[in-house]
Amino acid sequence: MDRNLALELVRVTEAAALACGRWVGKGNKEAADDAAVNAMRKTLETVGISGTVVIGEGEMDEAPMLYIGEKVGNGAHTEVDIAVDPLEGTSICAKGMNGAIATIALAPKGGFLHAPDMYMEKIAVGPGARGAIDINAPATVNLKNVAVAKGCRVEDLTVVILDRPRHDKTVKELRKAGARIHLISDGDVAPAIAAAVEGSGVDLMMGIGGAPEGVLAATALRCMGGDMQARLVFLNQEERDRARAMGIDDFDRIYRAEDLARGEVVFAATGVTNGDLLRGVRYFSGGASTHSIVMRSRTRTVRFIETRHFFDFKPRLDQAPATQETPCPAKTF
Ligand code: VTB
């Protein structure tokens, strides 16, 4: 895979972040998502690939852009599969809260786990705790093992977990064990990656989130030598049937990062709002700055890129929105 593709992908996530960056705090998550999707799709047209979206915004009829099966890229001969989340954390963006990112990942054909848009239980750590996690073990045991691997105390560890009723028991257990907890309202891809970044202040990401987000996180962790275990969470028979139709027959299977994202993979993300991993889009007179991460599994080179964009010279990148408010629904599961 051409290594320059990595930088091409940053252009794609930058464009998405700049587009939805204008919607931060405007209370309209659909519009923010639309802006990111359109910008990502447009920029992908310039990238030298023949890509197929395998993880995207949904099925063709429910998502006009970047739907699963959509062909993207300029038609060059490199055939790849694409996973996108043009705005991971739509509610975060709409509320102007921390942790929204624009992200894309690329794998050789067939490299990403093919699963429905459903829940996935995940535990992710950085290279320093590789081999220390076990999704079947109690949270306390994982904490102890990660602490030993990292040469610190459980009290020094920070665990990021989605703030959902389904995690109440785990959160209680983590607190009892003495770990520090960072509850997040949405967006579990960025903290999984942050766990693999020395000095980010995040040691583990765990809990039940989206399966597509799990595949994106796994791609990034493969590029960083981090470790992840995951298991699909089926809520009903329909989900089992859909998964079976996609070739999944072992419903209890534990997936490692290497099973979720196989072969030579590339990952890029740009911050939309500030987070543990990336800073958000910041505007200045005549332009804006973005903060991105881009990496490849082949070399494990991790680049953080700070870019200054000047709208007088790239007017396409700046899209000021009309104002409109849509409430963000409360979480119950
Ligand atoms: C996570 C998170 C997403 O969905 O995967 C979460 O990363 C899981 O679903 O940003 P619930 O919201 O139903 O708990 C998001 O929060 C939104 O897609």
What can you see in these coordinates?
Helix 1 packs antiparallel against helix 2. A hairpin with a 2-residue loop joins strand 12 and strand 13. Helices cover 29% and strands 26% of the residues. The protein is globular. The chain starts with a helix and ends in a 23-residue tail after the last strand. The strands form 2 sheets. Strands 1, 2, 3, 4, 11, 12, 13 and 14 form an 8-stranded mixed sheet that branches. It is an alpha+beta fold. The model has no long low-confidence stretch (mean pLDDT 94). The longest helix has 18 residues. The site of 7-O-phosphono-alpha-L-galacto-hept-2-ulopyranose has 13 residues, from strand 8. Pfam families: FBPase_glpX. Its cofactor is Mn(2+).
Q: What order do the SSEs take from the amino end to the carboxyl end, as H and E?
A: HHEEEHEEHEHEHEHEHEHEEEE
The molecules bound to the chains, other than polymers, are: 7-O-phosphono-alpha-L-galacto-hept-2-ulopyranose
CATH topology of the largest domain: Fructose-1,6-Bisphosphatase, Chain A, domain 1
Radius of gyration: 19 Å
Uncertain spans, ≥5 residues at pLDDT below 50?
Answer: none
Largest sheet descriptor: 8 strands, mixed
Strand content: 25-35%
The tally of structural domains comes to 2
Number of strands: 14
What is the correct CATH architecture of the largest domain? 2-Layer Sandwich
